[in-house]
Amino acid sequence: MDKDVNTGETQLVKMIVFAVGEQEYCIPILSVREIRGLEKTTPLPFAPPYVCGAINLRGIILTVINLATYLNVAPEPENPRRVVVIIEASDGTVCGLLVDRVIDMADIKPSDIQVVAEKGHSLSGLVMIGERMIGVLKLDVIAHELINGMQAE
Amino acid sequence: MSDSMDEILLVFFQECDEQLQELERGLSALEGGETDHDTINAIFRAVHSIKGGAASFGLENLVRFAHIFETSLDALRSGRVQPTHDVIKILLKAMDVLSDLVTEAKGGAGVDAARVAESQTSLETLHAKEDAPDSADSLIPADFEPVAFDFTPVPIDFEPVPVSFDFGDEPTTEGGDGADTALPIQVTFCPHKALYERGDDARNLLIGLRDLAADAQGEAEIRCDVSHLPVLTEIEASEPCLSWCVVLPATVSEDSIHAVFDWVSDVCDITISRGTGSGPDDGGGAGKPQPEHSTPEDAVEPETDVNGVVAPEVEPVAAVGSPASFSAPLVVTEVQPPKIEPAGVKVNLAAPPAVSGQKGERGAVKKRVEQASIRVDLQRVDELMDLVGELVIAQATLETVGLQHDANSEQEMARRINSMRTLTRDIQNAVMAVRAQPVGSVFQRMQRVVREACSLAHKDVALVVEGEDTEVDRTLVEKLSDPLTHMLRNAVDHGVEAPEARLAAGKLEQGRILLSASHRSGRILITIQDDGAGINQARVLEIAVKRGIVAPDATLSEDEINNLIFAPGFSTASSVSDLSGRGVGMDVVKQAILGLGGRISITSVPGKGTTFCLSLPLTLAVLDGMLVMVAGTTMVVPVSSVVETLMVHKRDMYTMPDGRVVISIRGVCMPLLVLATELGLQEAKGYSIPEKAVILVVESETGARVALVVEDIKDQAQVVIKSMEKNYRQIPGVSAATILGDGSVSLILDVPALVASTTERADGRLAEPASGIAA
Fold this sequence. Notes:
Helices cover about 10% and strands about 45% of the residues of chain A. Chain A is mainly beta.
């Protein structure tokens, strides 16, 4: 599973593209475990604002991150296509990303990604698919923040 | 290949640990005055087993020491040395060294050579007392009573010496003076393919012969005939090419030899003859001595016939002889010990008992991950199996009832579900019983801890152990070891006084620490009681003030003073010793116990001693919880911490000047916590306590009580503990989470942390994340 899209220059990486508010983002499809409808979450005390709460995924308890809040973008108004993308980071952390809608899949060449932030930032780069500008998310950074609460608190 | 070797080595180390426990038990019994033959034999067997196993893995340090240990024990066994107090002390020390050597072999910390040498010397002085001829006798490793080979699930039967068809290694020749000149018996033995296909192994037979020789106080000379061995490229792995020639002492009866081959007589060629004449397989012998095939004595040398052609292919020889190990071409000597399984089932999660023994590279044994395997009483597994069978039936009947649509089907359904509930609980208990382990295994290790602490602190303390059969969950057993070690060291170092002081106080010179375990109302209670001077409260308070743990003008109750020793950074020892005094001890112990969902309390009587009580849950997986509503969500409060539940009128609450609210329940005042705002799930501003509030009075392990305001009490249920930390972080005030009947997630409250926060917090938020219950 190649989650670090900056390595493996020549290989095409299959990405899943989804929308959060106006903006589109993508993550490697191999790190996606499943996609679920949004269900009722259990609020967690002292959670950072971007954490919606905890859900039960067949016996595993995981937290759902509201990507709109996390990325600080205005979310679309409530729509029936909101889904939770369950992802697994390379350290084994499982969490859910609440996105407004899943758009499609795309093959992306890692060399096409324009790096916009230094290491340790969750939005690592931008990539063009046709006319659309798509943000590339670093799941490991998100998971790390979730576990250690770097940004929050 | 190295993987399978590692696995076998792992099995060996597991067995070593068991043998060391056996040894510890035996020596304790010996110390307790049980000097009968059985006890001494058990001790002997344990050391011998370790030695035997270590030899097959080429762990030389271990073998050497075990051998000396064994020799001393042999002196004890034969009655030449009496098990006096001093002798036992030497043996105990030797056991500790042996255990360290095992750890070293595992890849752990190296052993101080001086300590080994010291123990070795003292052991040698033990058996040096015996007569010279006797000691020579006891040096022959094969010279054991048969009893030493029985009932031991360990590769004890392997001795590198007598069965040495070591091709590469220089044969060891210790004790090789038992030559039998008077017409020895020669057995030629050539296995057929069918023998291996049956799963038998020529080696087992050779071991049988060797044992015969050992019984006759002699040695078997075994040589391997490789003359029928084809060149490497033509070797058919499944075709046996080897035959053996075994020379046994004259005293061995032919009948007993036939008995060895009883089961295989139809699948091999055997000839038994008197004298050292040549066997049928010795054709065209060049008579050239081959060092690869040399035995301790080369008296029958000419028989060993090797065609020059074969020489380069010598290494794979053993592999061809035994197809089972063909994957291990480097194997030079491979002797699989017969495995005698004990009555219980050994649930081995990995490591199939494969064949082989490998020389070389043994020194570089890497540190291994602790292997998770448990021994379970067969009966418990059977019980579980029965219950699972019941469950299958229950499910079937439930389905049948579910399909019925008549008047009383609903009632019937309720009845079935009820019985299913009982069954589920039974299964849960049965699984817990499978995971349960007696605490004895940890307690036994503590003997050594106390012994070492004593020698460092120059005190004489006896550790008395009670209730070692008390069973708790395996994870708990493992995690108890560190806190107990710490507490016992403390007890020796600080608790028990120096011998002179004890005598002056009219006590026995030898201190006594009682370590006991028992079940009490669904929890396990462990007490550590010393008969020392007790806690010097004035001193504790003085130090606490000096270190800034308490304010100088604080007035504390006796209990509070006693509990100060759990404060971080506290130490009463005026100087830092090897044992304790760095002030991290009891704090860490308390954290560890809390982390296990346990409580710790302390009582102390000046001049009489100190008692620590640990109370721990039996399992870490399930707890009885009270389901309460907080800010619109369901939360779980462990029932064990709830003292009472009641409705309180607002007029019974008082707001303190600092904004805190206290409540008086039957004249006792306690702080009131509104859970919803406390956990930040509701804005504190604008929240007002309702006229009539539902209140849970909870208590932490220190006895401090807090009243929690909740919206409603819904139910009481058993909940399965799920970790939050795996995919999220620790939440202050929450120990773990669980999944409710409707599939939603519910948080389990960390009562001790909540209680502590009311006394520690400064700004209305919970202070530090407290330790939670690990799922």
